[in-house]
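Form P-L/3: holo structure prediction, ligand fe (ii) ion.
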Amino acid sequence: MEQIGTVELYQPRHTLIGRDGILKIPQFLRSLNANKVLVITDKGLVKIGTAGKVIAVLDEAGINYVVFDGVEPNPTTRIVYQALEFFTKNGCGALIAIGGGSSIDVAKAVSILSANGGKIEDYNGVNKSAKSGSPIIAVNTTAGTGSECTAAYVVTDEKAKSKMLMVDPNCLTYLALDDPMLMVGMPPSLTAATGIDALTHAIEAYICSVPTPYTDALALEAIRLVSKSLRTAVRDGSNMEARTDMCWAEYMAGLSFSNAGLGLVHGIAHQLGGFYNIPHGLANAIMLPRVLEYNRPYCMGRLASVAQAMGEKIDSLSVDAASRKAIEAVRKLCTDVKIPPLCETKFSMNDIDVLAEHALADTATLTNIVRPTLDDVKTILAKTYFEGIIMKKVNANG
Ligand SMILES: [Fe+2]
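OUTPUT (holo model):
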């Protein structure tokens, strides 16, 4: 691999992976010396008691905190400003995000805005802030987005109906925490979608235009772990070995893409999320196989390695055939964990022009292994949509 210049690597300041990691939050908080902490979460996690488990630890330790539970999936600029107001009005000095990518991304946006001022749009793109953000403890409750360990966050621009992707090391968390005990209550559909999101991070980082030996190693092991344990985690949510494997997979996949890049799957998925509010993991899972088919001619050797990491036997196969095996394995995994087709979402073929245009401009698309054209993206969307309809008919006819 030819490498030009020095590579800077990003990771959280501290990481805890494993059971009961949340009990250690107070010791990390004390080292931050914050008078008050803003807890950012969503009403669903409050209702099912997941947020309460973390809050009980804060109460026990006598931590001074306030709670903002207004995060929604695909969080918008409006939600970011509401949380920011909570942070400043209450004189907070640090953040605890409890949730998946949505809560952690809102915390990152508040962190950057509270330290740097301005509007969230000012930070859309790469390395746009000047100062480190307010410290964040990210308590991840899904095994997918990797947001607890990445230098990126996504906010939906509600006026443009698109997503802004901010890539910014100043938003890296002080503590990333993946506790499989918090994931036990995750329903099978969410486990599936977020698990395929992690797989997408690893595959896109591995076949992107700027991988490194470091990101390759993380990606391949993440792919292996998802292939080994996602089906079990979906089928039996209380299987701690599978949940722990998924914690490692999602963390390693997150570090991999945060230090390499993503690709067109995310470029399109961001638009499906911004336009129709399709959950991020689901949008990625739906688009992954077809985008891999599009990218395959440009990364056959790497896709052959993906097939191997997924447990496929490729020794007697040509590189061409082995690369096809990777896509077959991805399709099979998506089917096994019951990812629905695009035609079962709010997607409409009438929006294909604007979706494709925004996908091309998305920061994630910049590191796709090949630069797609507008027609390429429209074709990928149309094929994904119509093949879903065909598959539904085939399945309905038995
Ligand atoms: Fe993602």
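COMMENT: Residues 145, 197, 201, 266, 280, 284 surround fe (ii) ion (CB under 6 Å).
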